[in-house]
Amino acid sequence: MIDTFKVILIGDPCVGKSNLFKRCVENTFTEEYQKTMGCSVSMKTININEEGIKFQLWDTLGGFAIKHTFQLLEPTSDVRQQHW
Q: MF terms per GO, please (predicted)?
């Protein structure tokens, strides 16, 4: 049986979430900034100790969407509230 883990990349805009996503999925890197529209999702399977581990990677847009994601996940969280 292959274990599956969901990895959601969240953070402020322009910090490199999409480049980290592309490095993990496609093993590429670009210095050019391209705004993420909505969300990108991809699967990546790696073998560790001869066992497969599947990652479902989510690349999200930054900024406004993060505030609401934190509010949904942790309604009492004041993480980065002053910034927003």
A: GTP binding; GTPase activity
- Number of structural domains the chain divides into: 1
d(CA 71, CA 74): 5
Let me know if residue 78 belongs to a domain.
no
Domain annotation covers residue 37 = yes
CATH code of the domain covering residue 17:
3.40.50.300
Tens digits of pLDDT across the chain (84 residues):
778 889 888 777 888 888 888 888 889 888 887 777 778 889 999 888 888 899 998 888 776 555 555 555 555 555 555 544
Backbone phi and psi for residue 41, each to the nearest 5 degrees, phi listed first: -130, 135
Q: What is the pTM of this model?
A: 0.62
Is the sign of the CA dihedral 38, 9, 56, 46 positive or negative? positive
